[in-house]
Amino acid sequence: MAKISKKRKAALEKADLTKEYSLADAASVVKEITFTKFDASVDIDVRLGVDPRKADQMVRGIVTLPHGTGKAVRVLALVTPDKEQEAKDAGADFVGLDDYIQKIEKGWTDVDVIITMPAVMAKVGRLGRILGPRNLMPNPKSGTVTQDVAKAVKEVKAGKIDFKVDKFGIIHTSVGKASFSAEQLAANANEVIQTLNRLKPSSAKGTYIRSITLSSTMSPAVIVDKNSAI
To answer: For 46-58, how does the pLDDT look when each residue is reduced to its tens digit (9 = 90+)?
Structure first.
């Protein structure tokens, strides 16, 4: 029999990990079984009844969490000179174009989100092989390629995130920190779920949302009663 870690044993003493909880209760349980010394991230995993190999079943979207992500998001704005001050005033951490493109080509990717303009995508496009695997490539569908750079920067700073179903049909994204209240975590998670419902592909057959779990960094997953969150 596999040895149970002290933290998992402590978690099992506080919660029944085979039980399905309402979204609100699941958020409370996750907080109770989080034992990290740092402020752990809280994540939601939603298994969807879609086939990501089919283009018309690729679920991708953006959502603004009502209580933010709880972490400082480092934003790089790749813009023309006339848009630089606008991006800085909106809160972008790094602003420029050719100089940052050269830095990225040399391996620098120390940012969380890159926002750019349609006019410079020809230059930014050549960074695809570097930014793509790191999920940093700007995309119009996620709102990171836009003429309104200031608005995009402000939204990202306020808690706007983008997500995409993986090859297993699972959406995985953060909904806050363990220091958030259970109500805040539940509200953020609910916003993700409701957004997924609105993005249901018309070609998806059968059960769309198959399972939902919440977990924090290094904690076991807590099963959410999907009927309580749909």
So the answer is: 999 999 999 999 9
